[in-house]
Each structure stands twice: as structure tokens, then as C-alpha cells.
């Protein structure tokens, strides 16, 4: 009898040959797949799958093969979309068919990320999580009750940056976590080494590694997860076990904090406390609430960190844009107060300079699109980077130019990034209003009081490199910049009581 502990190389080879022959028989019934790089027998395009900055490789495929391209890695079909039109046609117009998510045997099943919203299959749990989001933060009006939290924590951010400007990235991460944890769980973070922030950071590092395209062979050859941990090549199972424990701590510890606070009658208003007090809840209801909150605070904090760090890098590299944004703030807000959410509609140039990213979809049934065969279970990857850098849609896309999104001299604005960067179809990001609010206030307050420029070391100006790191959420490389108060009045605003 063949068991998982006595599989031989011959067994594996015979299995691969069997899969290959079956494919040759059944694929003849279907139209052609979308075009893509030619694969090898048995392994398909395993050697073509990019691990570093996959968006660049996907963009090259788009130039060579068109808006829709296809590869197959050991039986897993992957379809890459490089245009907004194709993404809209498939993910919006055929939303019911393309609302699934790929099953990730390592990250989803072994580690446990299958319970977070980005990996939930389309069904009851997903609908309930989205309902939770919508009821608490689904509209701008619903977000208003958290404006004071955003304001207080962003003022604290200004003080941290003023005191230790060389630790910008740490301040950004601390503040993003502080804002989201106050909103998600009513928890006020410690100034240094907060345990919830630390475990959240570790979890999001793991998430980024686990969900990158082609991260683990077991994600496209699922039977590998059945191998024992000691088996050659199965070392990923030890990592998965460790990362599972980290994820469980990130999800359960803040939830327990809220439950204990509610039992003591001292819980502040939060996403979790509002949902837990909404009526009689079953164990399954509480499970969904716990994972909804975890999705909110882990996901939103990491995207906010990436956005704000990218903003500081952009201001370092494009001082003319910074000056225009500051001039707008000075004209609308003046020098005697900090910007607030009430100013948002009066600062169109500033708003146009802020944007964000996406996750693969999965097709739930066979489809024929533009004459191409898309098999059930195919992973659908939207190359949002290229869509936002498409020269046919954006003039000089590599130029940081917020004015492109404003109507000027009778000229229509270019496509608003928000229609792309928060995803497509029924899987569009439900935290869009929270993400925008956090990023906008940090950017507005920072530009009101700080001048951001290139760092100078030993008399030499350092120009940081714009080289985003690989990952599901792409962060800029660590960079240096100079951050100085704009004036004595700016210092006075920074030093105001953060609870003002």
C-alpha cells in the first residue's frame, strides 16, 4: 500500500506522467488558453514564475502577449490581467464567477490565513465579514465617530517625528498600528515595544511572504502539504507551524482584551465592542467578528504604512509637488491650526496625490473570455502596478504628478487611481474609507508642519532610490530623508497637547 511516508521518486514521476497524459486527453475538448510563455512538459511554467517584483515580469508578458496572458505551474492555471478594461470585463461584469479566492495550502490551510477576508471563498463567512465592515466603517459617515482617534494619534506622530526624525519608518508603523488598534479593539498602544504591534508586524511580514505569487511549491502542488515535516523539501511545514502560532496570537489576544474590558464594563467604543454588543451571538458569530477585526487591524495598518512611507519618499524626490501641496494647505488652513477632515474637500491637489493595491481572484467555473478558455480554479492576478503605469492611460506614468487627476483648462482628468487600486468586483476592499482617511490625515498634517528633503551626510546630498520591495503589499526600500519644522509656528502646532 502506498503511504505518505514511503513515496519514492518513481511514484512522483509516475504521478506527474499520469497528470500530463490526462491533461493531453481532456484539454483537447476546450478552446485555447490565453497566450503566454511556453512551458515545459510536466512542470509547465514553474521556471518562469517570478519571485522578485513579479509585476515587472507580468508587465513584460502583457507587452508580448496582450492584456490577458496565461501560465501553468504544475497543474495550477494562472491568468494575468494587464489592463483595466479586461479586469472590469471579467471581475466586474462576471463578478459571480470571479469572486472566489485561490486556495493557498500553506498560507491558508497550514498557517490559518484562510479565515481572513482576502482569502475567504465567496460564501456566508465572507458576506458576514463584509457586512461587519459595512456596518461599522463602510461609509464616510460611519467613520466620523473615529475622527478624533485619527486626529489624536496623528498629532502624536508629529511629535515623534519632530523629536526623532531619523526614526521615521518606526514612527509610521507605530502610528498606523495605534490608529487601527484604537478603532478595531479600543486598545491604546504603549509608546515603545507594544506587544500587539510587535506580533502584528511579524504576522504581516509572514503574510507578505506567504501570499506572494509562487511563494511555495506546495501552493501549486497541494499534496506536498501531506508530507511529514522531516521529509526532504517539507521544511516549509515547520515555518508554517511557527507562523500559525504567531497568527493565532495576533487574532486572539486583542479580541480577549475587548471581551475582558466589556466584562468589566470599561470597554471604549470600537469595531469589536460594537459588534459584540449587537445582540445574542453564537460561537460562529463571535468567530467571524474576531477574524473581521483581525483583518481590519492587520491589513489596514500595513497598507497605511506602505502608503505613508511612499509619500515621504515621493516628497523627498519631488520637492516641487511638495511646495504646491503646502501652498494649498497654507491657503485653505492657514498657519494657526492643523488640517482636519473638514478641510478634505477643499484640498483637491493634496487628495489627488494619495493612492494604494490588490489580491488575486479565483474563477469558480469554466469560462470562455474573448475566445480564450479560463479553467475553473484558475488564479486570476490583476497587475495593478501596470494598470497604474500604463502609458496608454497615463501620460508619463513614471512622473509623480498629482495634477493629472484634476480637470485643468478644459482637459479631462486622467483615470482616478481609487477606481483601480482598491480592487475590482465583489472583492473590492471594504476598508476603503478607513484606508483613505488614515493616509490623508497623516499626509495633510505632515505637510502643514514639516519640510521634507534629501538627507545630507558629510556635505553630500543623498538621493534615495525608488525601488519598491517585493510582496503582496509593496513597501519602499528603507531610505533617508531630512524632516524639519517649517517655522516656529509649526513647532508650536506640533507641541500642542495631542489630546487637544
TrEMBL record:
- State which pathway it belongs to: Secondary metabolite biosynthesis
Q: Which domain of life is it from?
A: Eukaryota
- The residue range of the signal peptide is 1-15
What cofactor is needed?
heme
The answer to keyword Oxidoreductase applying to this record is yes
User: Does the keyword section mention Glycosyltransferase?
Assistant: no
Question: Sorted alphabetically, which InterPro entries does this protein's record hold?
Answer: Cyt_P450 (IPR001128), Cyt_P450_CS (IPR017972), Cyt_P450_E_grp-I (IPR002401), Cyt_P450_sf (IPR036396), Cytochrome_P450_fung (IPR050364)
Where, in this chain's numbering, is heme bound? 429
UniProt keyword terms in alphabetical order = Heme, Iron, Metal-binding, Monooxygenase, Oxidoreductase, Signal
Q: Which GO terms describe its molecular function?
A: heme binding; iron ion binding; monooxygenase activity; oxidoreductase activity, acting on paired donors, with incorporation or reduction of molecular oxygen
Which SUPFAM superfamilies does the record match to this protein? Cytochrome P450
Pfam families reported for this sequence: p450 (PF00067)
Q: What protein family does this chain belong to?
A: Belongs to the cytochrome P450 family.
The entry's protein name is Cytochrome P450
Organism field: Suillus placidus
Amino acid at each position: 500500500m502506498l503511504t505518505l511516508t514511503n513515496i519514492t521518486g518513481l511514484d512522483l514521476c509516475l504521478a506527474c506522467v499520469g497528470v500530463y497524459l490526462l491533461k493531453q486527453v481532456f484539454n483537447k475538448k476546450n478552446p485555447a488558453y490565453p497566450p503566454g510563455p511556453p512551458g515545459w512538459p510536466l512542470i509547465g511554467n514553474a521556471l518562469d514564475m517570478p519571485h522578485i517584483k513579479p509585476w515587472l515580469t507580468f508587465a513584460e508578458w502583457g507587452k508580448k502577449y496582450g492584456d490577458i496572458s496565461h501560465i501553468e505551474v504544475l497543474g495550477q492555471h494562472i491568468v494575468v490581467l494587464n489592463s483595466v478594461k479586461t479586469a472590469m470585463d471579467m471581475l466586474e461584469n462576471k463578478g459571480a464567477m470571479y469572486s472566489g479566492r485561490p486556495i493557498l495550502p500553506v498560507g491558508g490551510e497550514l498557517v490559518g490565513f484562510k479565515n481572513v477576508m482576502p482569502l475567504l471563498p465567496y460564501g456566508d463567512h465572507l458576506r458576514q465579514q463584509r457586512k461587519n465592515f459595512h456596518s461599522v466603517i463602510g461609509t464616510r459617515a460611519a467613520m466620523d465617530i473615529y475622527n478624533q482617534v485619527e486626529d489624536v494619534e496623528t498629532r502624536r506622530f508629529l511629535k515623534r517625528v519632530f523629536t526623532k526624525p531619523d526614526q521615521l519608518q518606526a514612527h509610521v508603523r507605530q502610528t498606523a498600528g495605534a490608529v487601527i488598534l484604537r478603532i478595531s479593539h479600543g486598545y491604546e498602544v504603549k509608546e515603545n515595544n507594544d506587544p500587539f504591534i510587535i506580533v502584528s508586524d511579524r504576522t504581516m511580514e509572514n503574510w507578505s511572504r506567504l501570499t506572494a505569487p509562487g511563494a511555495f511549491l506546495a501552493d501549486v502542488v497541494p499534496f506536498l502539504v501531506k508530507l511529514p515535516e522531516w521529509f526532504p523539501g517539507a521544511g516549509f511545514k515547520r515555518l508554517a507551524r511557527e507562523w500559525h502560532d504567531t497568527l493565532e496570537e495576533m487574532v486572539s489576544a486583542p479580541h480577549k482584551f475587548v471581551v475582558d474590558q466589556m466584562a468589566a464594563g470599561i470597554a471604549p467604543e470600537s469595531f469589536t465592542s460594537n459588534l459584540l454588543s449587537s445582540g445574542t451571538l453564537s460561537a460562529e458569530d463571535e468567530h467571524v467578528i474576531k477574524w473581521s477585526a483581525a483583518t481590519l487591524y492587520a491589513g489596514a495598518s500595513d497598507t497605511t504604512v506602505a502608503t505613508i512611507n511612499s509619500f515621504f519618499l515621493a516628497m523627498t524626490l519631488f520637492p516641487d509637488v511638495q511646495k504646491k501641496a503646502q501652498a494649498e494647505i497654507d491657503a485653505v488652513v492657514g498657519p494657526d491650526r492643523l488640517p482636519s477632515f473638514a478641510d478634505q474637500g477643499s484640498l483637491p491637489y493634496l487628495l489627488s496625490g494619495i493612492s494604494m493595491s490588490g489580491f488575486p481572484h479565483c474563477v469558480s467555473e469554466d469560462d470562455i473570455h474573448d475566445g480564450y478558455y479560463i479553467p475553473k480554479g484558475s488564479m486570476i492576478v490583476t497587475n495593478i502596478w501596470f494598470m497604474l503605469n500604463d502609458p496608454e492611460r497615463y501620460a508619463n506614468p513614471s512622473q509623480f504628478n498629482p495634477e493629472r487627476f484634476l480637470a485643468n483648462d478644459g482637459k479631462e482628468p486622467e483615470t482616478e487611481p481609487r477606481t483601480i487600486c482598491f480592487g475590482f468586483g465583489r472583492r473590492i476592499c471594504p476598508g476603503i474609507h478607513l484606508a483613505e482617511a488614515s493616509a490623508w490625515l497623516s499626509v495633510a498634517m505632515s505637510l502643514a508642519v514639516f519640510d521634507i528633503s534629501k538627507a545630507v551626510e558629510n556635505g553630500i546630498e543623498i538621493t534615495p532610490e525608488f525601488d519598491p520591495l517585493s510582496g503582496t503589499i509593496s513597501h519602499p526600500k528603507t531610505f533617508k530623508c531630512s524632516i524639519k519644522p517649517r517655522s516656529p509656528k509649526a513647532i508650536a502646532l506640533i507641541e500642542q497637547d495631542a489630546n487637544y
